Amino acid sequence: MTEAPAPDVTTTTGAPTAPAAATGAPATGTPPRGIRAAHTADTVTVYQAYGPHLGLPAARDGRFPPAWKRERMTWIKPSFLWMMYRCGWATKADQETVLAVEITREGFDAALARARLSHYAPHVHADRASWRRDLARSPVRAQWDPERDLHLNPLPYRSLQLGLSGPASRAYADTWTVAVRDVTPLAREIHALLRSGDPDAARALLPPQPPYPAPPLPHLDA
Q: In a 3-state reduction of DSSP, which class is residue 132?
């Protein structure tokens, strides 16, 4: 089962956060909304979590198995720590297997271009009716959720998750996907180091996630 998106939160938290060195957060001056993701010249890595019956065959074969329901909406997350927040460090039911899915940048950029905000934003949409029509026509939904620090506390800036349905979901599974890796052992190792009181060692294992060079995304309020 694909994990559901977290509830949409449209107000950025103003709670104070620890310095970047203590949280694993980017330096100050981080844009309020941005895509930070492991990427190469041709690919970008996103994260998902599944039960072992889906996650293990996908990692073994490097592609999603026939049992993966291509007609359902699936949510992809470029942020590793947001995925850890969502799956509870691979402890939640049906989210015990964490996958790093490397997809083509061409596919990811196409999804960004077609995406529509999952919530109504008055400064983006003419009115609620036009937002609903736009959303109904698009197979991609975008949501900005508070990024998480190493201890999974919310940070005062947001990271992207994309919901893919219909043709976008099928393209993701069967065309865009280049490689699938099981990163559950990494998630558990980082979590174990945190629980043992060694955040520096845990932070050193985090996947690098530099800013992704997306074009301006005014239709996504970014």
A: helix
